[in-house]
Specification:
- With 67 residues, the protein is mainly α.
- The protein is built from 2 helices and no strands.
- The protein is elongated and about 65 Å long.
- The model has no long low-confidence stretch (mean pLDDT 81).
């Protein structure tokens, strides 16, 4: 390893959109195009993060006492 060799802190993985090798500039994607496709999917509602239906503060008192 020479002084000019880059240090890779993360293992290189394929782009989650197209499968090509990822590029450090667009990590974890291979290009700006794939990054934009992913963003469009998030904004379009194709991806979702699961959440609880009722926050604990809004549960009825009877349920809080049973826990």
């Amino acid at each position: 390893m020479t002084k000019s060799d880059p240090v890779h802190l993360r293992p290189r993985r394929p782009c989650p959109i197209c499968g090509k090798p990822s590029e450090p500039k667009f990590h974890p994607f291979c290009s700006a195009r794939c990054a934009q496709i992913d963003l469009g999917r998030w904004l379009g509602g194709r991806y979702a993060v699961a959440k609880d239906d009722e926050p604990e503060d809004e549960r009825p008192e009877a349920q809080k006492e049973e826990d």
